[in-house]
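# step 3/5: fold
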Amino acid sequence: MTANVFFRRYWQLYALLALPVAYFIIFKYGPMWGVQIAFKDFNLFQGINGSKWIGFEAFAEVFRMKDFYTTLRNTLMLNLLDLLVSFPAPLILAIMLYEAKWVWFKKMSQTILYIPHFISWVIIGGIVYQVFGTQSGMINNLLTKLGMEAIPFLTDKNDWLVTYLGTGVWQSAGWGTILYLAALTGINRELFEAAEVDGAGRFKRIWHITLPGLKTTIVTLLIINLGNMITIGFERPYIIGNLAVRDYSDVLSTFVYRVGIQSGQYTLATVVGLFQAIVGLAFVLGANYASKKLTDESIL
């Protein structure tokens, strides 16, 4: 079958692809033209083409900045802790829901778990301050009324870190559960029935059937998460963070915001963005290579 005949026969499928392809071209590949700002003394009025070429001078300037290394450390620390805490949470929740017998309980639990994913971080930040605020937070108000000392959830660095991680689990675990539940439906139920007949308990069935059946999904999501190790969302650390915990909450995304938007140093901000992209690619390729060698599972 020639390409023209194939296209005429399945033109509806190509029409459906037109919109997502256009999206990637316009919003993903188009902005790559601006990467050259990292190598120019960018002037907003002269534009990209009119700005003076400076080579790697901006890279050297960024790598001399103390704040860059502080925010890089915080980014890696928060992402690593997020990986350790948030990554297993949806897997555990999915297995628990899959093993639950009451259908109504499973549906209700899934709905409750999914809702936080669709709430803006601005709203979540407001909820966090209302619940965990030192002076006016619901929990600390209750503790003080009981004669106990208030806990500085948002002003002490270590307490803030626990609050940050817990909020992330609450916001993201439900959405990740969907992926694992979808993968669980692909496991043959006859395997569980045969294992039960052979006398395998629930935990043995989970260990020998459920987890191996989820191996591909786990590895894929782990590689993706490792690829995002150097990047971090702006909203969560910016909204929940404050000056009292800046030693932990100041990350690369907030650094780019201060340098690029507030100070107007677009060249330096682009350098940091390019650095994140290159290091993120290295993380993805490295994690994929290690996974292929250790588990024979990979995404490339």
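# step 4/5: annotate
The mean pLDDT is 87.
# step 5/5: archive (pending)
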